[in-house]
From TrEMBL:
It comes from the Bacteria. This is Polysaccharide biosynthesis protein. Signal peptide: none annotated. Keywords: Membrane, Transmembrane, Transmembrane helix.
Length: 624
């Protein structure tokens, strides 16, 4: 039967409706005659009016087609269609009175009125019965998904009403946090408390939950969804009416956070102006060009009009994306943008790239920078950050590159982690090369955390908020210096231009920002409230998880705290001790031997010996 119904075309289904409507005419007439007090029996009266019935049927068919009733689908037979049915019945009652009068058949006027009413009721009843029959056939022939509706409010009940007529979905019950609704029956469905979800799912063979709580805050919805998904349920959320009509975006409420809002100070604007001369018309190489800092370096260098910009990157995807962007920016400028896929630890490739492209300025931003990852993989971090820097800097010096600028970090100062130690070792290597190669100007730029960079804290908080929280903070006492990406890059380019050799440049970054304060700001600027002891009904909770391996409560910018001013009032030069050429050779030899032996303990001993202020992180710091 299902195949037969499915095979019918739209016009064939219309013929079926017309045939049913015509077959109901004699039945409606017989029903009418039964109700009326007539001199003959109902059957005799029906036989008496038989000559006019074909004309009545023809009129019914024509009027039905004119009104469009046969083309109205069963699942769309509602208010308007019922009105058209009433018009058809009214017109057919008039036709009946006219035809019997012309034929000389004497019937009371009330008979035709009753016929119109009876025919109208028969037509409506027939559509309802047909719909239920077809729906039953479809339901029997096709598998139905049993769903639970979370939310028994207005949206939930409207959803249940709509799904009652669906041929593939079968709503089974409601779940609602409102205790006043629990235990009630709405739209024929029982309302249960959320605590019974697991029991209901098993008992009623439910595989999907429809979340009908659009007015609930996004984090709370995310928390509910997360809890349901852990039960192995598929969850779908229903948008609000405001979203459906376009007054509210069908996306997460979370809005981008302007980085300068979290600095705790005014953002610095370091105008390059004449400093662009150090890059204009030159071949500039940026290592780590696909990273947050590297890509911004490339964008700002393009404004200085170099002759060539070489993008050196290990990640194929990152290189592809930054090259696509920069090629468009450099269009019609005459600047050649060259993508190079490779590692800075490969001396032969580094030498070839520098030679083939006649590189005159190197900005070295390639590094493993995520503290926990490098702490878990110390040998890889040291190999890339230390020996990658040594290889690129040594080859640049040997080929007479004009400037080599190392991007360093505040974590290099008295580090408690391998990442910070690797950056300090890289600084020592560059300082050593600066004393031995007068033809190349070497300098280092050291700054704090960069807001908005990959893996930084603000995008992490935003991601946690979008998933309903909690926002995780390692320790309520943790503070960090912050910069915008634009500030950091302006500093690097400015310092690179001002460098005369072997300097460690730092920026006046104001006071460090408490991470707990930052977490609260990100939550509030996303439009939510913090859930804590003072506000137990808030949206997002802040969870303290303890310091991660290698993490400090506060970072420093210099070892000696002795800073010398430069031509720019917010850029300073740190006076720090250097190692001799022999000492640098010894540390590199010891580190190379540790890497060759895959000996993490030996590598840490090299760091302990040569990195001033380095202290090994231990679990006691979590509670100290």
């Amino acid at each position: 039967m299902f195949r037969l119904i499915s095979a019918l075309s739209r016009s064939q289904k219309a013929y079926v409706f017309i045939a049913v409507d015509l077959a109901l005419i004699p039945l409606a007439l017989l029903f009418t005659y039964t109700l009326q007090s007539l001199p003959t029996t109902p059957v005799e009266t029906l036989i008496q009016t038989a000559p006019v019935q074909p004309y009545l049927m023809a009129a019914a068919a024509g009027l039905s087609l004119w009104l469009g009733l046969p083309h109205i689908q069963l699942n769309a037979y509602e208010g308007h269609a019922v009105g058209m049915t009433a018009v058809l019945a009214l017109l057919l009652a008039g036709a009946s009175a006219l035809l019997t009068e012309v034929s000389g058949i004497a019937l009371p006027p009330g008979t035709h009125v009753m016929f119109g009413i009876s025919y109208f009721l028969f037509l409506v009843a027939a559509r309802v019965v047909l719909y239920q029959v077809v729906l039953a056939i479809y339901r029997r022939a096709q598998p139905r998904r049993r769903v639970l509706i979370y939310g028994a409010g207005t949206t939930g009940t409207q959803l249940a009403q709509a799904l009652k007529a669906h041929d593939r979905i079968d709503p089974v019950a409601f779940v609602d946090d409102n205790t006043s609704l629990q235990g009630m029956v709405l739209m024929g469905l029982p309302v249960f408390p959320p605590a019974r979800i697991s029991e209901i799912v098993k008992a009623r063979d439910i595989s999907r939950v429809l979340l009908a709580m659009p007015s609930q805050s996004q984090p709370k919805q995310a928390q509910i969804i997360k809890r349901l998904q852990t039960m192995g349920l598929e969850v779908q959320a229903l948008p609000s009416f405001a979203q459906l009509i376009g007054e509210e975006a069908l996306v997460d409420k979370l809005t981008p956070v302007a980085p300068q809002n979290f600095l705790g100070r005014a953002a610095r604007r370091v105008a390059l102006e004449a400093d662009c001369d150090s890059y204009a018309g030159r071949a500039v190489l940026v290592s780590g060009a696909g990273g947050s800092i590297g890509s911004e370096l490339c964008r700002q260098i393009l404004n200085c009009r170099p002759a060539k910009l070489v993008l050196y990157e290990l990640s194929e995807l990152a290189l592809y994306l930054v090259h696509q962007e920069l090629e468009q920016l450099a269009e019609d400028t005459g600047i050649e943008v060259v993508p190079v896929l490779g590692s800075v630890t490969d001396p032969r490739q580094v030498r070839k790239v520098l030679t083939d492209h006649g590189v005159q300025v190197v900005l070295h931003a390639a590094a493993y920078k995520h503290v926990p990852l490098v702490e878990a993989n110390p040998l890889a971090g040291l190999a890339n950050n230390v020996f990658g820097t040594q290889t690129l800097a040594r080859e640049a010096a040997a080929l007479g590159v004009e400037r080599f600028i190392l991007i360093s970090s505040d974590k290099a100062v008295r580090p408690t982690n391998v990442m910070g130690a690797s950056k300090r070792l890289a600084e020592l290597v560059v300082q050593d090369l600066a004393t031995r190669y007068a033809s190349t100007i070497f300098a280092m730029v050291r700054f704090g955390n960069v807001l908005g960079s990959s893996g930084s804290v603000v995008p992490l908080f935003q991601d946690q908020i979008s998933r309903g929280g909690p926002v995780t903070v390692t320790d309520p006492r943790v503070k960090r210096y912050f910069m915008t990406i634009s500030e950091a890059v302006q500093l690097v380019l400015k310092a690179g231009s001002e460098a005369r050799g072997s300097e460690v440049f730092v920026l006046d970054m104001g006071e460090p920002v408490p991470i707990m304060q930052l977490a609260r700001q990100v939550i509030q600027r996303a439009g939510y409230t913090v859930r804590d002891a003072d506000n137990p009904d808030g949206d997002i909770e802040i969870e303290i998880i303890g310091l991660r391996p290698g993490e400090k409560l506060e970072e420093e910018l210099t070892l000696s705290r002795d800073l010398i001013g430069t031509r720019h009032q917010k850029i300073f030069c740190a006076q720090e001790a250097k190692l001799s050429e022999i000492e640098v050779a010894a540390l590199l030899r010891g580190l190379r031997e540790a890497l060759a032996a895959s000996d993490e303990s030996a590598a840490r001993q090299v760091i302990l010996r040569w990195v001033e202020g380095y202290s090994v992180w231990d679990d006691n710091r979590k509670t100290s």
